[in-house]
Amino acid sequence: MSNVRNKKRAGSSLPFFFKDSTIVSFIIILISSILLYITFTFDIVPPILNRGIQPATFPKALLLLIISLTLIIFFLSIKKPWKEEKKLPTEFYITLGCFLLFLFVSKFLDFFLGISLLSAIVSYFWGERRLIFILFVSILFPIIVFIFFETILGLRFPSGIITDLYYS
Amino acid sequence: MENLSFILAPLFSSKLLIVLFLGTLFGLVLGVLPGLGPTTGGALILPFTMTLDPISAIVLLTAIYCAGTYGGAITAILINTPGTPAAAATCLDGYPLAQKGEAGRALGMATVSSVVGGLISVLVLIFFAPLLAQLAYEFGQPEYFALAIFGLTMLASIGEGSPIKNLIAGAFGILISTVGKDFMTSIDRFTFGINELTEGIGFIPVVVGLFAISEMLTQSTLLNQVFNRVALKAVKLPTKDDYKKTWKTILRSSGIGSFIGVLPAEGGTVASLIGYSEAKRWSKKPEDFGKGSIEGIAGAEAANNAATGGAMVPTLALGIPGSATTAVILTGLIIHGVRPGPDLFREQPEFLYGIFGSMLIANILFFILGFFGAKLFARITLVPNKLLWPMIFAISVCGTYSLSQSLTDVWIMLLFGVIGFFMRRYGFSVVPVIIGLILGELVEGTLRQSLVIFEGNWLMFFQRPIVLIFFILSLIALGFPLIKKKKI
């Protein structure tokens, strides 16, 4: 499969199911269909209380519209294919991975630590090698932002191993 | 006369003048930095505005809007990268002229034409917004429904990119607005048992995600990009000869920009492209375009700044955002308890005319700051992305968290950041999502309330003349791209 992908990058014509337009259309239709199915589980208002339309009718109409329009762009893409996108670089996946790391750290350890870790890793993998600058974006700047939000907006940040030290 | 005193009021308030100065300064910085701009910047600053009174908050946001739109030209001219999408057309002639050693002249023309465009558009706003609001007094629920539909179809047809993809994005935005408790029956929709979702998905997490976080992901794919910077000595005011060549272009583009701005679409970006192409069409030397034509810069810059005032017309008069940035301003109004629309003109004219006056002052302020400080602002682009974006991430996360002190909002922001990245990658503009989200409640609410009025008879929509006019205009808007054979 990776060979086929490589061929695609080289610009060769591909079977339709490997094309971006097919994959994107398929994902949109799949998610919309799942959401459409979910709308059938919404509570129904008894006719005597119902004002206008049922709460599920409007989202159902929107999802059907999205599915229909996606089918149109898919069929149009057969005639006029989309521009093939370049392969995403490693830095993109690292940044995306950092988002997941941030989710985990801020939820289970500390919000501030999550921001610091993400800032340090992103800065490093985006090419920053000077320690002083990495420390600036990962420690000093988040501290400034924290203090600013805390004092000016009166915000209380979620509990965590470092934040609790600050509040105590 | 009373309204004139309201317009001039910000001049006599030291607090508003300070807010205007800071907003203009911040707007210029945001406009200069590629990938940021007034929409993302406005969204990032929204939580901070909670510490201000409503008029100061909106004045700050509008100053960012005016100055940010102009700021994009500095980067467009000096490094051939538009600071904001609205400055894309400015690159075409601004950078070649800068390469010829005339960066100061190019920036001078961009500054003057931006200010003229901006001032003309504020005059359009002062004149047309009250008229439009007066017209809207006649509107009932069905008319507002038809108007919102018209707004969305316009967005699809004259927005950037494929109209069908724009429609999908707009429908997606409206779909997001349906998450949470149904406002008429309190039945949960798409809440998946998550308590925080019963209140619905907030505007700020979505807009910060779609603009700031998705841009951060985009920047991660552009790390090897090399900018060729042109040195700037000083900004030069246009010469008599330059004025002679461009005054007609500036006036024409100001008119085009103001008109395009009024239509609910991607305001400045579309306006500058049309302003540029019209400048070329009417020029005596169209062959110079793309090679450093001073008329090209004037045409693009006057139009994109003129779109700012134009876009504020439907935003303030009808509560329908004219562009992505005005959607952020609209949110600012709503979170400060101000509901734009015809009633606002009747009940709080001093508030509205204060905004108009502030926009006039903001245009003059960015002229002064741009003229004397362009060299300094250009240096901001030297801040490398590897330092800038982690800092923006910290502000985005804290700003999003601050609104309802909920980590769920932060997760939503990150999710929409990823969605926004892939949408942009595959040619779906994220602006219709924002407009759809803003208009979603209006569309569904007015549709359902209309059906209650009509006792479920859909055909009664067609018995109301204003509704019929908006539906016909919507059909024309949908058919327009087919006539123009736009790309799908």
What keyword list fits this structure?
heterodimer, A: 168 residues, mainly alpha, 2 domains, 7 helices, B: 488 residues, 2 strands, globular
Structure report:
The complex is a heterodimer of chains A (168) and B (488). Chain A has 168 residues and is mainly alpha-helical. Chain A has 2 domains: 78 residues; 78 residues. Chain A is 68% helix and 0% strand. Chain A is built from 7 helices and no strands. In chain A, helix 2 runs antiparallel to helix 3 and helix 4 runs antiparallel to helix 5. Chain A starts with a helix and ends with a helix. Chain B has 488 residues and is an all-alpha fold. Chain B has one domain. Chain B contains 18 helices and 2 strands. Chain B has a two-stranded antiparallel sheet with strand order 1-2. In chain B, 62% of the residues are buried. Chains A and B meet through helix 2, helix 3, helix 4, helix 5 and helix 6 of A and helix 7, strand 2, helix 8, helix 15 and helix 16 of B.
Oligomer: heterodimer
Shape of chain B: globular
- Largest chain-chain contact? A-B, 69 and 60 residues
Weakly predicted, low-confidence segments of chain A:
6-12
Rg from Cα of chain A: 24 Å
User: What percentage of the residues of chain B does DSSP assign to strands (E)?
Assistant: under 5%
Rounded to the nearest angstrom, the distance between the terminal CA atoms of chain A is: 55 Å
Q: Note the main sheet of chain B.
A: 2 strands, antiparallel
Ranges of chain B where pLDDT stays below 50 over 5 or more residues in a row are none
Count the domains of chain B. Answer: 1
Element string of chain B (H = helix, E = strand) = HHHHHHHEEHHHHHHHHHHH
Largest pleated sheet of chain A: none
| Global geometry of chain A | flat
Question: Percent of residues of chain B in helical segments?
Answer: over 70%
Helix content of chain A: 55-70%
- What does the average pLDDT of chain A come to? 86
Total number of beta strands of chain A:
0
Structural class of chain A: mainly alpha
